[in-house]
Amino acid sequence: IPAPAALSVVRLCCDTNTKSPLLQCVLTGRWINDLGSNMTIGAVNGQGDFAGSYHTAVTATKNAIRVSPLQGSQHRTNQKSQPTFGFTVNWSFSDSVTVFTGQCFVDETGNEVLKTMWLLRSHVDNIKDDWKATMVGINIFTRLHSQK
Ligand code: BTN
């Protein structure tokens, strides 16, 4: 094997998922989180960019919940089996925006899990209310398997 080919084999085999080094966590698909919110992530392109939709189970407002668009970015598209990522949800039923950041893991049972943190920015009418306009939290997403 020529030297460059041998090097790329080493890189593929020795990622950080020590128990299952060849298992990949893939963002594309349908997910549900610990609040019961659902999201669908489309294909991740060559730049790591992706789009999708988010159906939250809860809201900080009194508005009726509607499915909202999300846009995100995954780091190192084909080098890491457990990639980091971020995405923004632009809520279609409120004046708020949520940003999520996290990592896609394969857990010890072989299941994919997204461990995320989020910041929810709500709209306030007055700069004096800025101090209370941002919430922070965590969400854990698992893959939704289609029922047949
Ligand atoms: C709003 O209330 O203005 C928009 C909906 C916010 C829903 C939040 S985002 C963070 C947390 N995770 C969820 O799945 N839903 C809530």
From TrEMBL:
It comes from the Eukaryota. GO terms for cellular component: extracellular region. InterPro entries: Avidin, Avidin-like_CS, Avidin-like_sf, Avidin/str, Avidin/Streptavidin-rel. It is found in: Secreted. One of its GO terms (molecular function) is biotin binding. Belongs to the avidin/streptavidin family. Homotetramer. Forms a strong non-covalent specific complex with biotin. PANTHER family: AVID PROTEIN-RELATED, AVIDIN-RELATED. This is Avidin. It comes from Pampusana beccarii (Western bronze ground-dove). The lineage of its organism: Eukaryota, Metazoa, Chordata, Craniata, Vertebrata.
